[in-house]
Specification:
Chain lengths: ~160, ~160
Amino acid sequence: MSTTEPSCTRFLPALRELVRAYQAFDGVSSKHIRSLGLTTSQFDVIATLGNTEGLSCRDIGDKTLMVKGTLTGVLDRLENKGLIRRAPHPEDGRSTLVQLSPTGDALFHAIFPTHLAYLDKLFAPLTDAELSALQQHLNALRQILERDRAEEDDDVSP
Amino acid sequence: MSTTEPSCTRFLPALRELVRAYQAFDGVSSKHIRSLGLTTSQFDVIATLGNTEGLSCRDIGDKTLMVKGTLTGVLDRLENKGLIRRAPHPEDGRSTLVQLSPTGDALFHAIFPTHLAYLDKLFAPLTDAELSALQQHLNALRQILERDRAEEDDDVSP
DNA sequence: TATTGTTATACTCTATAACTATA
DNA sequence: TATAGTTATAGAGTATAACAATA
């Protein structure tokens, strides 16, 4: 408060907490995921495919934020582990239908409830009102940040 | 609400928003960082070293959540770019004092205000009250999650 | 001509462990 | 004996571009 910057930093405490909270969650979550012999990306794919009839690579990439080149590698490794299958897409000859294999489906149903129950225990101290408020504020924040992504071209320069 | 799981998922909407808000921020932030020719890890180190007299690898690792083996590689690349310097630590012969080079310091002072101003513009729609509430809720969440990390041993099993 | 997914390349981060040199 | 940092290794994600098959 005696420096050169104006009021340019009022958002920093909240932003720092966002990053730290996410990192804390990521630490808890990825510890659990790694104990299953999976990476975060692999788990994301399993979770995305769970309870579906199968998805195209494009769909999976959209949901997991992976570009197609990356996804191919992740799917290769999941296929090698026998957790997914690739089949020709019935409606589009260019596309691939990616599905959980029986093993993958069993894994999904074995680990997901456990994962959720584990997290639920952690979240017990937070009231519904707190969770709801948190959700709404985070949603507002996200919309602001995503609005920026849309404006890909009119950037900072001028 | 007609499935097998109990109330095991009341936290999921908030958690999903946490992840999505973080991903949105990460998208905005890393777009800016990559445009500077840096990776997120490299930027983290630059930001950590900014406005300090230099830090040990241990300190940097603690703040950026990188293990020492990873950090060595990141520091190597920053050193090759001429952005940091490694000097023997004056107080401990085993340790290294990592500092921003003049070039790195210039970069830090050139990009940090820009980065903050850029974010400040994005955050303009949020009121101080909203930011404050968000910060407090995130802090509560983080403490819950970090409490878990401490209990490394009495895990889910029994 | 546009889209889907794969391949290829080069880089970076991750995790782990062995190693050195200091303390 | 413990700590700080480097080195070595193997594996995995990232970004980008070129490519084949299909629409």
